[in-house]
Design goal:
about 280 residues, alpha/beta, D-Maltodextrin-Binding Protein, domain 2, 2 domains
Length: about 280
């Protein structure tokens, strides 16, 4: 009887341990600036009120975050479409939801910027020949876009890496490059500060913005629970939900699928991303 009782206790403990592990959400977030980390803190607390044990780990840049994800150090993250798409191609992750900002926007595309008077981008790789191009590494509105252009546009150019899209625009204005490739949403927000720059070209498709992806190996019940919580956020009038929406600057989240990544995945494959891609060129 004693052995049966002990075995029963061990079984319960193992089940609890397994359930705890299965419900543990380990989110990678970027910390290019202190506020980038702080804006996700209310979300972590909100998850906990919904019975999801959430925590986050900081990554200094997207390549580092991608490595953490692929190694299993984290199992979820809000990601730019480039990294998210790369991990989808590598079968490491699946898209869950993406945020909708207060203006109802949830997608973006690459724009090509240059000093006023520069000839318009003609869609050809030769346009970049001999030019310094400043952009963000592993971004669908940055390095991935340049490398997706047929004819080896990246090989014809000198690439200058920037820490952010804003930094790329600022670097172009200071003469650090001849051309910048950046996210259109960033350009729209700051272009009034750069009278000497103009858009000379753009991508023809859209990418999901800030998608929340989860590991392909995560328990399906946890994926479903996380998705349900995030999709219900917009209608939630609680103090915790309000804090999430305020700090993230969003209305709520919408479901995101592989179909939403159709343009992005095509772009990445043209840029040479495949299952063996190691998040670096």
């Amino acid at each position: 009887m004693k052995k049966i009782f002990i075995a029963a206790i061990l079984l319960v403990l193992c089940s609890l341990s397994s359930a705890s592990f299965a419900s543990e959400l380990k989110i990678a977030i970027m910390q290019d600036a202190y506020r980038d980390a702080q804006k996700y803190r209310p979300l972590v607390e909100y998850f906990k009120t919904k019975g999801i044990d959430a925590s986050f780990s900081l990554a200094q840049n997207y390549p580092e975050a991608a490595k953490m994800f692929s190694l299993g150090t984290v199992n979820a993250m809000f990601s730019g479409s480039g990294i998210a798409g790369a991990m989808i191609i590598k079968d490491l992750a699946v898209p869950i939801v993406r945020p909708v900002d207060k203006d109802g926007i949830s997608t973006y595309w690459a724009v090509v910027l240059a000093p006023k008077g520069t000839p318009a981008y003609n869609g050809q790789a030769g346009y970049f020949k001999g030019k310094k191009v400043i952009l963000c590494a592993l971004a669908s509105s940055g390095e991935f876009y340049l490398r997706s252009i047929p004819g080896d546009a990246a090989g014809k150019a000198t690439i200058v890496l920037a820490a952010s899209h804003g930094a790329a625009i600022d670097g172009l204005s200071k003469g650090l490059a001849d051309v910048a490739i950046v996210k259109n949403r960033t350009w729209d927000k700051v272009k009034h500060n750069y009278a000497g720059l103009e858009m000379v070209g753009k991508d023809t498709g859209e990418n999901p913005d800030g998608t929340f992806i989860m590991s392909s190996k995560v328990d399906e019940k946890l994926k479903e629970q996380v998705e349900a919580v995030l999709l219900a956020l917009e209608a939630d009038s609680s103090t915790g939900a309000a804090a999430v929406k305020e700090t993230m600057g969003i209305q709520g989240f919408i479901k995101t699928t592989m179909e939403d990544f159709k343009h992005t995945l095509g772009l990445l494959k043209k840029a040479g991303v495949n299952k063996s891609f190691d998040f670096a060129y």
